[in-house]
Design a protein that fits this description.
Two copies of one chain form a homodimer. With 389 residues, chain A is α+β, with helices and mostly antiparallel strands. Chain A is 22% helix and 21% strand. At the A-B interface, strand 4, strand 8, strand 9, helix 3 and helix 4 of A face strand 4, strand 8, strand 9, helix 3 and helix 4 of B.
Amino acid sequence: MKITPTRLSDGRELIYFDDDPDVLAGRVTRELHDPRDLPETVAESEMRRDPLTGQWVTYAAHRNNRTYMPPANENPLAPTTPGSLPTEVPADDYDVVVFGNRFPSFSTSIAMPDDPADYAWTVDGQDLYPRRPAEAACEVICFTPETTKSFRDLPLSRIRTVVEAWTHRTAALSRIDGVVQVAPFENRGEEIGVTLQHPHGQIYSYPFLPPRSRQILENAREHRAATGRDLFDDMLAAEHRAGTRIILSTGGFTVLVPAAAKWPVEVMVVPNRPVADFTGLTQDEHAALARVLKPLYMAVDRFFEGVERTPYIAAWNQVPVQSRLTGDDESLRGEGRLHLQLFSLMRSPHRMKFLAGSESAFGAWISDTTPEAVAERMRAVWPDDKEWQ
Amino acid sequence: MKITPTRLSDGRELIYFDDDPDVLAGRVTRELHDPRDLPETVAESEMRRDPLTGQWVTYAAHRNNRTYMPPANENPLAPTTPGSLPTEVPADDYDVVVFGNRFPSFSTSIAMPDDPADYAWTVDGQDLYPRRPAEAACEVICFTPETTKSFRDLPLSRIRTVVEAWTHRTAALSRIDGVVQVAPFENRGEEIGVTLQHPHGQIYSYPFLPPRSRQILENAREHRAATGRDLFDDMLAAEHRAGTRIILSTGGFTVLVPAAAKWPVEVMVVPNRPVADFTGLTQDEHAALARVLKPLYMAVDRFFEGVERTPYIAAWNQVPVQSRLTGDDESLRGEGRLHLQLFSLMRSPHRMKFLAGSESAFGAWISDTTPEAVAERMRAVWPDDKEWQ
């Protein structure tokens, strides 16, 4: 793999991750210069802590102007081909490319208030409402230059390059002052509001511990206090004993439906040994992971009869940056494990689950299916090795 | 008001709440007998505790067969008129009616496993996965017999009857063994998956403390430990000092946009004094609440230019049944306050917010607006008193 870091005209970083180390030499026309004259974007994001729930909510009003479903000839994630409008990617071809989001929720260039008094960082001067600049980074990752393709279509070598890119960015974003967790995820499908069809994901970083991560770490800490054992180890052992929800266990990873899955389709990929984040995987595990993800994404798109592309959210939960767990949160260090949570809100062909009163207002999930039924279906549609090897 | 309890043919309770105490005498044709021959429904709901998040997830697979958007002549919530098919409501007219949900998420008639060994109530015999029957009750409340109307159209007297019905059911459902919280809510709009257009709400009860309630109680307990004061008192005081998010304060209630609101439109109605649930409101407060809700629901439907019916979720958060807070949760007794959380996922006319990776996978909300802008808009569209008095 070859990594080529560059800059866009407004100063944002753009990095090419090429499958083949010789790729730059082999492509005569690769253009690294961004011909556009973009103004530097300064985000106005702020975060506020809800005194009732204790959660940080981020306000990024500037994002209301972002690009929605542009016509195909204005796809900002496509390579820039000769004669066409320049896109976000100056090169006329790429394998995988990562760059700063032009409309980020979190940014390292935050507009600070004019009035120094506002630096007190409370809402309206009320101590009950802490407020902070939403300082972190949001990046975009394109999985392929081919707009009509999807993650499931990537060859193993490309999936491996994507894993390397996630690893590289996890290390880089973790170094940003104040970043607590790096969160690569992909939203796929118009059904869940995806605004650009080009196969791509997001790499968010959070300047606070996101609620789900906090829950997991707190439960893992309690489990260790009570049993002396690792919660993920015990979960994997319980799944192997039960056998009813495991889809695949191979090459250092287990693919399973969680015993208390919330979503109509939900799959988890977990390393069998304690790995904190992408930077903890070995080269062999990168290759093994690619061989797990390829059939998984194929199976997800076969889950519903007559649905060619299952809308999904695929989110990589990584352990937080340990040194940023301070105060009471220091006791959460050493807990958690890298895992993929891939889920869909589709409940039957073309019918979506809506999060209504129980889920959205009270946080209490009601499911119309069972984890065992989902696992059975996943095993039934899982592709034979020869379909993708 | 007159309360007339009856039973449907399958044994479910159905209760008429009539605005006028003399109503039954005044309507010659009211039929209390359900002419249908419905089999008793036995739910198969179970709950499982997710070891990673600590949350209970409910599985109600039998609900997959429930009624979707029936044609108007099959509206199961309409009164049964002579010559038409019998509906869920045998009477040919009603003001407000409450009855057990035919497809409940939680039920007091749960099918128990055949094998006594399954009573151990763990998933697959694994101690890591506690499992329980989903025992509680789910009721439906119809606000009016007029199918094309909406909550905003109800006269004050009817809103008061609805409040009395919520109060009656909060008391009744709280008495069910194991019920921890009673949760009246309304989902409105096809945009959020509402399956029946008839103006109605749900009254859920939960056999566990729902996640959002737990967060609120824990934060209130911490706030009291740190300051000696009530969190809701301090929140209301902070809002009055700031003044930027209060929409209305009158008759014992404050209407405001929370300082860290998560949703594109979000409004909270809070009693100014500590009231635990509907049963703690005085008769005067019932009347005052009706005078707050009427203009509020009118304003919500004026929020977006060109949108006649704003899709919303209106959820009443009540304090849990105190005696059911046991063990560590005993320390949560005495915390919390009745409040309405009314919110919409509409972000601009006919464009919905989707909960994608950040919200759904990590629980980290990103908002495109600010609470102050929402409050300003609500004040601008708030109806004059003479429009509804």
